[in-house]
Write a structure and sequence with these properties.
single chain, mainly alpha, two-stranded antiparallel ribbon, 3 helices
Length: 112
């Protein structure tokens, strides 16, 4: 799927800013899930949860990078409407990984 772009309107309003903020919120949410997963892993002594947390931190960094690229794409002379397919798949996989980490932390049996 090729990126779809259109000429930038004279006043794009706040849409590029809202899109960039959405990617920032996504990155922050993934980072918080990474911290929770790593904490549960350290408390329970489960290396799998620690690994999930590390992977989520990497996904959070990738979300920050994609958000930066999207901000630049949406503030130029031509608006690139379609986000990269890999970014969307990556966010979906990070969400799945965060869900698995949350479920695993529930069943890990650690005590506080």
């Amino acid at each position: 799927m090729a990126a779809y772009s259109i000429p930038a309107p004279g006043d794009p309003a706040l849409q590029p800013e809202r899109t960039a903020l959405a990617w920032s919120r996504t990155a922050l949410t993934i980072a918080i899930n990474a911290l929770l997963s790593m904490r549960a892993g350290f408390v329970a002594g489960d290396a799998g949860l620690i690994a999930v947390g590390a992977l989520l931190f990497a996904a959070s960094g990738a979300a920050v990078a994609v958000g930066t690229v999207r901000r630049r794409q949406l503030t130029g002379h031509r608006l690139v409407i379609t986000p990269p397919r890999g970014a969307l798949i990556g966010v979906a996989l990070a969400t799945l990984l965060a869900s698995i980490g949350g479920i695993a932390s529930i069943f890990s049996g650690g005590t506080s």
